[in-house]
Specification:
The protein has helices spanning 10-19, 39-48, 68-83, 102-112, 129-139, 157-167, 184-191, 227-239; strands at 2-7, 23-26, 53-56, 88-91, 116-119, 143-146, 172-175, 195-198, 201-204, 222-225. It has 240 residues and is of the alpha/beta class. 38% of the residues lie in helices and 18% in strands. The chain has an 8-stranded parallel beta sheet with strand order 7-6-5-4-3-2-1-8. Strands 9-10 form a two-stranded antiparallel sheet. It has one domain: TIM Barrel (Alpha-Beta Barrel), CATH 3.20.20.380.
């Protein structure tokens, strides 16, 4: 089984690789659900790691109904990832009625080639996940990152199992959200998925000793990839 770790910084990506991750999903603003990382983060991460990097392309938090201007923003970020020879882009588009926006998805797939395309958890917010799966299969995307339409992949494990069975070898169904060392074994047994997405995030506090209250919230906790968590779950996966 392949093990993808979500990393929100170059250091997190390096930790993930050192601990045994097979692939990285690189993003920014993990606490807000993830947005597109900066050029500096992308280029430095490409220099400092050797495993495949999938890049989240999401110009803002919130829904996945994008304006023409936001779509242009997305296209430019995809071209940047292509220039940096990333493995894949991770993106997703919905119409206002909750259906998959196949036109935008197909356009970004074509623009990204030869990079792979992962349709992210916008899938879980679509109106019918099996209808969405069928539509995405029809245009040949690489994989779907999904929690089985539930808050966590473990809660959605039965739906995930049905998605995996329906997808067969046409699309990779990659469970993600809330996966940890305590539930990966049962999740793998139930879903029979071949790839898993895991954040392994640990909260870290600012090292600032001087803190000025009641002005701007410039000092706050952040998240980083935990080496030990990645190492633990990797060892569990290797035994399955």
């Amino acid at each position: 089984m392949l093990f993808e770790v979500c990393a929100n910084s170059v250091l997190s990506a390096m930790n993930a690789e050192a601990a045994g991750a097979d692939r990285i999903e690189l993003c920014a603003n993990l606490a807000s659900g993830g947005t597109t990382p900066s050029f500096g983060t992308l280029s430095l991460c490409r220099e400092k790691t050797d495993i495949p990097i999938n890049v989240l392309i999401r110009p803002r938090s919130g829904d996945f109904l994008y304006s023409d201007m936001e779509f242009e923003d997305i296209k430019r970020d995809v071209l940047l990832c292509k220039q940096l020879e990333m493995n894949a882009v991770v993106c997703g588009f919905l119409n206002a009625d909750g259906s998959i926006d196949l036109d935008k998805t197909a356009e970004i797939m074509e623009l990204a080639y030869p990079m792979q395309f992962t349709f992210h958890r916008a899938f879980d917010l679509s109106r019918n996940c099996f209808e969405s799966l069928s539509n995405l299969m029809s245009i040949g995307i690489s994989r779907i990152l999904t929690s089985g339409t539930k808050k966590t992949a473990f809660e959605g494990k039965d739906i995930l199992a049905k998605l995996v069975e329906t997808a067969g070898d046409k699309i990779i169904i990659m469970p993600g959200s809330g996966i940890n060392a305590n539930n990966i074994a049962e999740l793998a047994k139930t879903t029979k998925a071949k790839e898993y997405h895991f954040s392994a995030s640990a909260c870290i506090d600012s090292k600032m000793t001087f803190r000025k209250e009641n002005v701007l919230s410039t000092v706050k906790e952040d998240f980083s990839t935990s080496f030990s968590d990645v190492e633990t779950i990797k060892s569990i996966i290797n035994k399955l």
